[in-house]
Structure to design on (361 residues):
């Protein structure tokens, strides 16, 4: 695998200009770039979506149909925690205090996943090498889905635009039982970060303990207090199907849609443009004027702003998006976006169909 670098050539110091303008916005408003009251209120609400139904389930007072409603709400809670709380926290955007970011970053572990693995995959690889096949794990070859024009093409991929949404429903279950465990060895042996850091040293035991605790309080404890085994197992799957579909869909709409370009680390060691320009060329927004989507998706429908300014809390993206869009257009750079979420979904399915029927670029 070649090491990919960026040429750092960009029109008229675009990076300096856009950072100066965004920084000036916060200076003029006299506000912090990190979370505010709205972020903290949302945190309480997202955690409640997960834990309140869980507590109600433990009371064992509901009919079976209502139990499944509780599990469904918990699935929404999982996506809310993942898209908002843990995401901002692990980007150091939740608070200006490191210990607060670290604490809420572990909300990832509370719902059964490794915060450390996520930071390696997402913060280091995805944010650095967005849509670069071979380095961005988000577009790695999956068993049944091809997310890059440079990926290995198989016969069944021609139908992936039809079955992908169903597979997305099982993404977090696969993440919990397979992906996290696989990443333990990959990141332990990699040079992505110092192996001497506390997080790196204790990642394996913390990840394993995380999953044991999750299986105890989500599976074992409800069974111990009297919930039917089949209801608990089915509810667990339902919870993750909802969470997996929501999380995976929202992340896919940012990069695997019409517009953003793709690269192959096997065929090049240099990408033209700076990292900032690369983010504009490989990222897209959607439903920017829909406050409900923005609220629930943790601002990830403003993915361009997030990739340019990952340490800024998502509650500010709506405002700074005007600055980013105008500056990109001023410098003749792309600013991809779909006005509606459903149009972004259609665009994603179109790309899946295209990637499923084309030979490797």
């Amino acid at each position: 695998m070649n090491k990919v670098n960026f040429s750092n050539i960009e029109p008229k110091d675009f990076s300096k200009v856009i950072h100066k303008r965004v920084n000036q916005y916060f200076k003029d408003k006299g506000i912090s770039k990190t979370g505010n009251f709205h972020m903290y209120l949302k945190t309480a609400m997202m955690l409640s979506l997960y834990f309140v139904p869980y507590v109600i389930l433990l009371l064992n007072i509901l009919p079976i149909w209502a139990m499944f409603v509780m599990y469904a709400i918990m699935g929404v809670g999982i996506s809310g925690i993942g898209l908002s709380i843990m995401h901002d926290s692990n980007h150091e955007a939740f608070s200006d205090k490191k210990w607060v970011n670290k604490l809420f970053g572990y909300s990832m572990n509370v719902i059964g996943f490794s915060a450390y693995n996520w930071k390696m995959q997402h913060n280091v690889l995805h944010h650095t090498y967005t849509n670069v096949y071979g380095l961005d794990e988000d577009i790695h070859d999956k068993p049944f889905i091809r997310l890059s024009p440079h990926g290995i093409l198989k016969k069944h991929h021609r139908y992936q635009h039809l079955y992908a949404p169903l597979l997305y429903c099982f993404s977090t279950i696969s993440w919990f039982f397979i992906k996290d465990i696989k990443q333990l060895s990959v990141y332990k042996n990699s040079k992505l970060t110092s192996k001497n850091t506390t997080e790196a040293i204790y990642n394996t035991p913390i990840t394993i303990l995380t999953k044991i605790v999750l299986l105890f309080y989500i599976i074992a404890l409800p069974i111990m207090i009297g919930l039917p085994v089949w209801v608990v197992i089915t509810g667990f799957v339902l919870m993750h199907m909802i969470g997996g579909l929501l999380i995976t869909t929202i992340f896919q709409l940012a990069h695997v849609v019409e517009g953003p370009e793709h690269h192959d680390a096997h065929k090049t060691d240099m990408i033209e443009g700076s990292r900032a320009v690369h983010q504009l060329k490989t990222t897209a927004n959607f439903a920017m004027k829909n406050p409900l989507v923005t609220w629930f998706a943790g601002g990830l429908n403003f993915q361009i702003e997030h990739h340019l300014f990952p340490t800024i809390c998502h509650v500010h993206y709506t405002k700074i998006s005007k600055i980013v869009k105008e500056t990109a257009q001023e410098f003749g750079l792309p600013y991809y976006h779909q006005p509606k979420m459903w149009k972004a979904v259609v665009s994603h399915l179109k790309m899946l169909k295209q990637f499923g029927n084309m030979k490797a670029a």
